[in-house]
Amino acid sequence: VFWGVMEKESLHIVVFPWLAFGHMIPFLELSKCLASKGHRISYVSTPRNLQRLPKIPQNLTPFISLIPLPLPSHDEIPPNAESTMDMSSDKVQFLKKAYDGLQQPLSQFLETTSPVVDWIIYDFSSHWLPPIAEKLGIRKAFFSTFKASSFSFFGPALNMMDDGGTTWANPENLTKPREWIPFPNPIVYKLHEAKAILGGAQKNASGVSDLLRIGHSINGCDLMAVRSCTEVEAEYLQLLEKLHGKPVVPVGLLPISTQDEGGGEEDGTWQSIKDWLDKHRNGTVVYVALGSEVAPPQDQITELALGLEMSQMPFLWAWRKPAGGSVELPDGFEERTRDRGLVWTKWAPQPRILSDNSVGAFLTHSGWSSIIEGLQFGRPLIMVPFAVDQGLNARVMAAKKVGFEIARNDEDGSFTRTSVAESLKMLLQDEITGTIYRREAKKMSGIIGNKNLQSHYVDEFEQHLQAGNR
């Protein structure tokens, strides 16, 4: 000990995310933050997913090892499919079954790798992992890629381990505020979302429900890390501690730096997008991206496209045709909008696009990663949530006035081209409304884009890991 500073020990941390890029990327960002402090990271996933991750910066490659575990095959999983984006959503239950087959090879890795493993940071899907780590004397951190407010909706872990108990007995229950959130809050599902999410409380082909997975993953951890910060949701982070009786540590929002996202340089992707954006005035382009996980139904894609057309506004749509689906853009849409719209079908460098001053709004499915990326650059949101936590995120963001939801039918979730066009016009052409939302989004960018503030959260998380290891 010198001047009261304790010698910092370097830890060996294993990281094991669920097989969805919306999980793998935040787990990688957290890994990079810890590696930059001199800790050794073993990032475990399946071979093809590891190949598709963004390149690790050269200064960190000595600290991060990518550990491939082959995914057990399953008749229902298409060949070479290893992530949720490689298959239609009805097949994901079989991916969970295959993922559970990684239990044996992962245990073997944890037992035999050197140096010995100090901590494992794992995801909701690995409900079987805590007892294995416990037996090997490895400390366990459950990392939630959901925001604390959305996560608090699911209630205490014991309730989840019971497949949600009576709370999840019918969809109407999920449209009412949770009794365990002791302050006024907007966190409820709309009826169409509640019907869709109900399956999360039912056993699927993997033999267990998603809720049960989450419950056991939390119940077995030593520490719960959350992709969040107190400036955004202090009261929900405190509530999670009360609900679960575990230390809850916000790791910050892990914003992606535009240099770090990799790809696009070699093939001129960014240059051709940038040339297109440069033709437009500041704050006039709508950037549209609906994530890689969920395929919206054809009628909603059609209305979205025709709403963009009706609005007469310039737009850049990062369009990924969903795996295993037959969803198409409407006939003639691209030709008719060619003078002011760009449909980009290859990989899109999203943070770079959002950082460009021509972008005035972000039309998003409201996944937490996308919300963070949009608000990091002060872009107000037009939200059209489709699955899991997206609706809950959208309610909170609307309450904060950083974005609003496209008006939809409560029963079936449908919306019209008119409601799409009206939302766009309200945000980009109505001066009073637009000013409010831009101002609030800008405030949020002061939190997310504040590097010192965000890295301070990683420092605190590191201190928890060091302390837990003594």
Automatic annotation (TrEMBL):
One of its GO terms (molecular function) is UDP-glucosyltransferase activity. The keyword Transferase applies. SUPFAM superfamilies: UDP-Glycosyltransferase/glycogen phosphorylase. CDD domains: GT1_Gtf-like. It is an enzyme of class 2 (transferase). Keywords: Glycosyltransferase, Transferase. The keyword Glycosyltransferase applies. Its EC number is 2.4.1.-. Pathway: Secondary metabolite biosynthesis; terpenoid biosynthesis. Belongs to the UDP-glycosyltransferase family. This is Glycosyltransferase. It comes from Opuntia streptacantha (Prickly pear cactus).
